[in-house]
Write a structure and sequence with these properties.
The complex is a heterodimer of chains A (193) and B (200). Chain A is α/β, with parallel strands linked by helices and 193 residues long. A five-stranded mixed beta sheet of chain A has the order 1-2-5-4-3. The longest helix of chain A is centred in the first third of the chain and has 12 residues. Chain B is of the alpha/beta class. Chain B has a single domain, classed as Rossmann fold (3-Layer(aba) Sandwich). In chain B, strands 1-2-3-4 form a four-stranded parallel beta sheet. The longest helix of chain B has 16 residues. The chains are: A alpha/beta (193), B alpha/beta (200). Chains A and B meet through β9 of A and α4 of B.
């Protein structure tokens, strides 16, 4: 079957489990409840041949309720079809079932999400930090964590401190001006030409 | 500059007169074996400098010994993350005196473009650096220039007193006025865990 037929059949078969279906420029995204994740993922892998989990990522909508979203990018290598699954995770729950028993690559992706965002994964074989060290007290990619970092100390393991910002992150503003005018300049006027 | 006696091998034979400092510094600077602390992209340029076109071996850095016990100069090439920082310090402490450090690239000198929660803002927060080579990454010629500057710095050093600086300063404290100890940064050259309170 073709890609579109596949995704239509997915809508019909899963029916109520899909909260919304968005199609944008040929990309299909299904929103589902976190409780249905494992069942839907297993169905996608077994019945619909989505054998390749490309990526899992997470979004922090700080101030919105529910706070987090977890996004699964699936791909079918036999049919060349992409699919995106989105879950909404609230801050109180902050936990999702693991899919590492379905796609073993999810192991490290979920560890990274735990490390950076703090979302736990139930029944994960080895849920611990992967980029920062065990015992680091913060979740760095949350919106309420500052860009320059926070001081922390673990004797003999690692330490961190806040990086000096010198006036803030210098960001190029999008515009049609030339690069000379778009690029941010130093705050001290005597350092400019 | 130390005075070196004029030398004519027909008259004097194969003997030269010189100062101990000059001789030892000459030997040290012309055989600086690097400890390549290649952490990120600058390591590629370090490899390029060691390869045939730019050939760091011409300047005495014949072998890149990956054992710190056999090295003279640590070339910190790449971004030093906080996760790696204490490992770099441990390797530095395992290097025997006399030892020097070249901070290669923007990230090793000052944290580079990464003003973030995970990157140490310059390896000089942990170990004393002798030469900073700027660039992202620095060209191999720039690293060679840094090595040559280090060689010039070694020429001017007091070679014997640099051998065991802490021991000498303990035994003969008056020497401290003539040759101040290497800057003791965040716990000193040998040991001590760094504490964040001394940073900005």
């Amino acid at each position: 079957m073709t890609g579109d037929e596949l995704l239509d059949s997915l809508s019909r078969l899963l029916g109520a489990k899909i909260q919304s279906r968005i199609e944008f420029r040929g990309e299909t995204t299904f929103s589902i409840q976190p409780e249905d994740l494992h069942q839907v993922a297993k169905f996608c892998r077994d019945e619909l041949s989505f054998d390749y989990l490309i990526d899992i990522s997470s979004i922090d909508n700080f101030g919105d309720e529910p706070r987090f979203e977890v996004v699964y990018e699936l791909y079918s290598m036999t049919l060349a079809v992409h699919l995106r699954l989105k879950l909404a995770v609230s801050e109180e729950v902050c936990a999702v079932d693991t899919v590492s028993d379905l796609w073993p690559t999810a192991d490290w992706h979920e560890r990274e999400i735990y490390d950076m965002m703090g979302i736990r994964f139930n029944n994960h074989p080895d849920l611990r930090r992967i980029l920062m060290w065990d015992g680091y007290p913060f979740f760095p990619l949350r919106k309420d964590f500052p860009l320059e970092g926070l001081p922390s100390e673990m004797p003999d393991v690692a330490f961190t401190s806040a990086a000096p910002m010198e006036g803030g992150p210098f960001v190029t503003q999008p515009s049609t001006a030339t690069a000379k005018d778009r690029e941010p300049r130093a705050k001290r006027p005597d350092l400019n030409q | 500059m130390p005075q070196i006696a004029a030398y004519d091998s027909k008259i004097e034979g194969n003997v030269i007169f010189t100062q101990l400092d000059a001789a030892m510094n000459w030997m040290r600077k012309n055989s600086l074996w690097p400890m390549p602390m290649g952490l990120a992209c600058c390591a590629i340029e370090l490899m390029a400098t060691a390869a045939s076109r730019f050939d760091i071996a011409r300047f005495g850095s014949e072998v890149m010994r990956f054992s710190p016990r056999q090295c003279d100069v640590m070339i910190v090439a790449g971004t030093v993350t906080y996760k790696m920082a204490l490992a770099v310090k441990r390797i530095w402490e395992q290097m025997p005196e006399p030892k020097w450090c070249i901070a290669m690239g923007a990230c090793a000198s000052s944290g580079g473009m990464y003003r973030s929660y995970a990157v140490l803002q310059g390896i000089d927060q942990l170990i004393p650096v002798d030469v900073y080579v700027s660039g992202c990454p620095p060209r191999p010629e720039a690293l060679l220039e840094g090595l040559i500057r280090l060689q010039k710095k070694i020429e001017g050093e007091s070679s014997f007193l640099n051998q065991k600086p802490k021991l000498i300063h303990e035994l003969m404290p008056e020497i401290e006025e003539r040759t101040p100890p290497r800057p003791s940064i965040r716990g000193g050259v040998t040991g001590g865990t760094p504490s964040p309170s001394s940073l900005v």
